[in-house]
Structure formats: C-alpha cells, structure tokens
Specification:
Elements (H helix, E strand, L loop, with lengths): L3 E5 L1 H4 L6 H16 L4 E5 L2 H14 L4 H22 L22 E4 L8 H11 L4 E6 L4 E2 L11 E2 L1 E2 L1 H6 L15 H10 L2 E6 L3 H8 L7 E3 L1
Parallel strand pairs: 1-2, 1-4, 2-3, 4-8, 7-9
Antiparallel strand pairs: 5-6, 8-9
Helix pairs in contact: 3-4, 5-7
C-alpha cells in the first residue's frame, strides 16, 4: 500500500500556542490506521511559530524574500521535530528535509519539513507524492472548503466541492510569495497538475471528517483534480 501523503497545516499545530489537544487526537487517529496496515508521510507547515519569527525580524530589518522563506522553513522543521517526537515509536528517526534525498521506509510514519526557498511545504508534499508513488495528497488546513474568493471579505463567495487544476490555478497568483495565503501554493499546484495528482483540502480540526475520508465515506472538503 502506498503512503498516504498529508500536508499538515502549521495553523493546526501552532495556531497561537502549540495545540496539544489537537495533536493528541491526531496521534490517536494516525496510530489507529497504522494498526490497520496504513502508512503515512506527514509534512508539517510553519504556522504561528514561523509567522512570529518572520514578523519579529521584519520589525528590526528589511528582509529579503529568501531570508523570510528560510525563517519559515526552519519553523516547519521545528514543528516536524515536535511531530517526530510525538510519533517516535512508529516514525522514522530522521526528518525528511529534502524530498529528493534517499530515504528508508522501514517505519509506517515518515515526518517531513520544508526544503528550500521558493515554495511552501505544499510543493514538498507533491515531491513526496511523486517519490512515494502516491496519487493523492490530503491537505489538512483550517477551512472546510476552497472558495472562489475570500469569504471573510466577500459575502457572495461560493464554496467549491470539486474543481479542475486549470480552473484552480487561474484563481492563484503566478508565483510563490512567503506568507501567501492560498489553499495550495501556485508552484505546488503547477507540478501537481502536471503529474495528474488529486489534492483534497479539508478542515483538519474535524478529525472525524478526515477519518471518513480515510474509510472511503462521504466527507466535507474540496477535491482538486
């Protein structure tokens, strides 16, 4: 069975403070499905940790895009070390920072983090999917659906249950920008489109909904195909 690729939003791990309640429940769910023979590759976003460091640095000096990116990358790596410690009994000892590097798959859970400037962990998730021969990426974030525009700003925003890559990419900017608020980053979207991957975006806080997806049942979320 190929690994299930999860892009775990940093907003779930560290919305402000570290969300130990969510992490405890997430751990139990993953362990439950590992016992059923499933394998997972979990790549961590930066969340509040990365944003606090980026914001603090910007108050002191004008940063280059590359420096902003590197701060965010190291935020993802700190979160990944937290996840690896939580899953230490069933996770690979080494955190994957470069999705193109050799990796041993003798444990059922693999934890990954940001790689290099110029993209988000969404892109790294796509590279992992290609490497591990997975056809789907589950993007656990803090929204139930993708919308055609920001529902916090536009009352006439429409939720999207399913969308093609061509239509989805038309909604995004053409390039990656550190701190970009998008359901799936434009660089990752371009490669996922090329590879013919499916990306499922759902609210990671609703773990019952995520489990329904894992069980092949009806779920709440957006499919990009």
């Amino acid at each position: 069975m190929s690994s299930i690729i999860i892009s775990l939003g940093g907003s779930l791990i560290v919305p402000g403070d570290i969300d130990t309640k969510f992490l405890r429940s997430f751990k139990k769910l993953i362990e439950k499905h590992v016992r059923r023979g499933r394998r997972f590759a979990i790549i961590c976003g930066g969340g509040g940790t990365a944003r606090r460091y980026q914001t603090s640095a910007r108050k002191i000096v004008q940063l280059t895009r590359k420096d902003i990116d590197w701060i965010g990358i190291h935020g993802t790596r700190l979160n990944a070390h937290l996840l690896r410690a939580i899953f230490y009994k069933i996770a690979h000892q080494r955190i994957i920072k470069n999705p193109l590097s050799p990796m041993s798959l003798h444990k059922p859970v693999l934890i990954a983090a940001g790689w290099r400037p110029g993209c988000s962990t969404d892109y790294d998730a796509v590279l992992l999917a290609r490497r591990l021969h997975a056809r789907t990426i589950i993007n656990l974030t803090n929204i139930d659906f993708v919308y055609d525009k920001d529902p916090r700003k536009f009352k006439n925003a429409h939720l999207i249950k399913e969308i093609s890559w061509r239509a989805f990419r038309a909604m995004l900017p053409s390039r990656w920008d550190p701190g970009l608020n998008a359901p799936f980053d434009p660089i990752a979207s371009k490669l996922a489109h090329k590879l013919g991957l499916e990306v499922v975006i759902m609210n990671g806080r609703k773990l019952g909904n995520f489990e329904r997806y894992l069980l092949g049942k009806r779920f709440v979320g957006t499919r990009i195909i």
